Give the backbone structure.
Amino acid sequence: MMQEYLQSDYPLDNMYATEEWITENQTLLRKKKLTAVEVTTRELEQISSLTTPNKVVALAKMQAIPSLKAMESLLVKGLHLALENIQDPGNLGTIIRTADWFGVDSIICSEDCVDAYNSKVVQATMGSLARIKIYTTELSSLFEKSPLPVYAATLEGENIFNQKLLKDAIVLIGNESKGISDELAQLAHKKISIPRFGKAESLNASVAAAVILALFRKG
Amino acid sequence: MMQEYLQSDYPLDNMYATEEWITENQTLLRKKKLTAVEVTTRELEQISSLTTPNKVVALAKMQAIPSLKAMESLLVKGLHLALENIQDPGNLGTIIRTADWFGVDSIICSEDCVDAYNSKVVQATMGSLARIKIYTTELSSLFEKSPLPVYAATLEGENIFNQKLLKDAIVLIGNESKGISDELAQLAHKKISIPRFGKAESLNASVAAAVILALFRKG
């Protein structure tokens, strides 16, 4: 995961690693013009909150959140994912990783989503946090002005299998148990639903996001 | 979740619940010809390993695993999911829930998968374990005799977006980090892959299973 950060544009401030790790990753470190401070495994255990043994720790600043105005200018083309009130860090991390796989241009979180820099989220992203642009904003203001159509995933939406899915769009995924709020559902241009063939009451939020992104990419 | 078990065919042996829960669920209990033993919330806390408060506990037998011969006779039509060495209980639980959503006819686990009756799996299935048939067997013997084609999900497979996906098939998903073993990959009739548009190294196993099942159902 740390190697993915070193290969990305994400700025890292300080690094602390074992002698072995520094030796193995010298080329990568040099490319990024970083020097890692050598520490022992015991010291790493004391620094980190992880229970599994690790060889390296880095300090990095969170990405600055652009203004709503700047964000609007980004949302004129491409595929974007909007998340309302996603609470489970594992879900958010998996969604970020999946969005990275499907080459989503940005993720826009509502202000009540779990923090994208929560340590459980960071781990579940498997390094994708280094590449994906994540913004936090009030989604209703953004949707009101959005030039891109917003597709809201709801249990009562139209069967996504029969829809023509535009290349440039925003996909909205809601809270794990409550789904999308009425306010945002009303602002969406289209409500879509993954058809159910069996009897489960719902799909996990990260699973629903993945299926919808795949279908958008298939077109 | 317990209501889903009561509405399913899954046999429950003993139930222990609060007075309130018993009153609220009398119709369901009567239908299933079950009597719940009344216990206090404090007693439930002592019985259960869950940290969140709950109102009911049930004892149920694990489903009997049919013989390989009986299993073969089931695998002549329909959509089935085979899992090799899935280790994370959350992943297995989410896969079971997703399989239930997409109306998968059965799930066949390799012998080195995490136990489907692990308490974390049971919780992540959100009740779907009551409805989905889950078998455990040596997958290679089964695939050798399978009249249904086996589609193996690998990073090097053919782009699934361009494939004609048969209605009757077995979808094989491999281990979270190692993927599908060479032995099983060789026995598969087709290797398929979810195309990557971004830079993530891989997809979560439960996410990959969901995307592939959705595409099979879309046809």
